[in-house]
Fold this sequence. Notes:
This protein is α/β, with parallel strands linked by helices. It folds into 2 domains: 2-220, P-loop containing nucleotide triphosphate hydrolases (Rossmann fold, 3-Layer(aba) Sandwich), CATH 3.40.50; 224-289, Alpha-Beta Plaits. Helices cover 33% and strands 30% of the residues. It has 10 helices and 14 strands. The strands form 3 sheets. Strands 6-7-8-3-9-10 form a 6-stranded mixed sheet, sandwiched between helices. A 4-stranded antiparallel sheet has the order 2-1-4-5, with helices on one face. It has a 4-stranded antiparallel sheet with strand order 12-13-11-14, with helices on one face. The longest helix has 16 residues, at 164-179. It is globular, with a radius of gyration of 24 Å. The relative contact order is 0.13.
Amino acid sequence: MNIIExxxxxxxxxxxxxxxxxSLSVPEGVIFGLLGPNGAGKTTLIRILNQITFPDSGSIYFxxxxxxxxxxxxxxxxxxxxxxxxxxxxxxxxxxxxxxKGMDRSTANQRLxxxxxxxxxxxxxxxxxxxxxxxxxxxxxxxxTILHKPSFIILDEPFSGFDPxxxxxxxxxxxxxxxxxxxxxxxxHNMASVExxxxxxxxxxxxxxxxxxxxxxxxxxxKKNIYAIEMASDSCDMEPLLQGxxxxxxKQVNPNSVGYSVRITDAKQVNGxxxxxxxxxxxISFKExxxxxxEIFIEQVQTxxxxxxxx
Length: 311
């Protein structure tokens, strides 16, 4: 079942087309990467999902029915633009936001103190928000996003302002939320995080969706038939043996091994390539090289821009 269905959504602001007949589906219980360059239309779509703004045409379905005002209570939203009241105390700010989501004071207080302790900011409960570091403020806002245990969570650049340790803690929290049944949309430019935790992705560019699918399927779709082979250093030099048969992309001599990056023209050549290396030395590793999400992102955006440069 899809928790979100976006059907032919279009949105324009003055003379700017933000979304152009965008359709996508977010399956229930996944981490869904919403990707795209700055100004692509991602934030506009996120605001429509939160009913902050509304589409000019098209429809949004939530759990099988048209998205309506009451559905917002089931949504947790961490915006890219941080929205905390600087003069309020951290605990009061968190309580205020929890109450806006319909939580009673006792439950909110209990959950907040547990989360403040978990994220190492409990000692700052009675300190003004403006005295918190950027990372602490980010923790505070993330806590208030998930406190009411929403079934659908939208995180817009959640890793901004976090050091590697806190970024890793946040990733673990996101994965735990998924285990508990939440569906998460993750909008980020951090492609390494997308590779680590996302199940599905959609790539938006110039107001249009240009790519969508399971992340593993997407990576396989754009693979270049390149294999990385590492041989023991006492093996034969494979470079002359590869000439005329396969394309040697790179050779790397290491202290105890020699690495080769080889492109084949057809998947049927894999067995022949493997046999050639086995016959001429000791193989340490042999693996297909799949493109990274960063490489796919750049390639697909650049290709789309070239094809649409007349617009």
